[in-house]
Target: MATE efflux family protein
Amino acid sequence: MTTSEIRIRIISASWPQASVVACRLATDLTYVAILGHLGTDKLAGSAFAGVVKTISSVVLWQGFGNALITLSSQAVGAGNPKLAETWLQTSILCCTVGSIPVAIIWWFAGDLLAFAPCEDTNVVHYARLCPMVHNLVMA
Model:
């Protein structure tokens, strides 16, 4: 197998995951760009809330997502698509159950952030609104 064939195989295997990550980052970038035009307090509140959102959700999208990719790839590579289907269903169930406490944390992120050392009450107010709006939009 030549080097160019290996590159083509690697790119063809990795482009789905790369496109998912690019779309996720583009969504976050768009969100921040829009808030940046609204004002510095709103942008700071969004960034403040984004820290809580990222820390609380990293288990779902990093843990379950990467596990699903690994296990499903092994199942398909072994010629067992039924097992890949089982892993997909298990991952969907775990993500659904795991998203309940994450949604609760996001809903009360502003209350958690009220304990952070921030003297500007507007920033804390917008930090309370951002996760709530995100939960309502994503629901």
User: Anything to note?
Assistant: The two ends are 48 Å apart (CA to CA). Residues 39-138 form one domain.
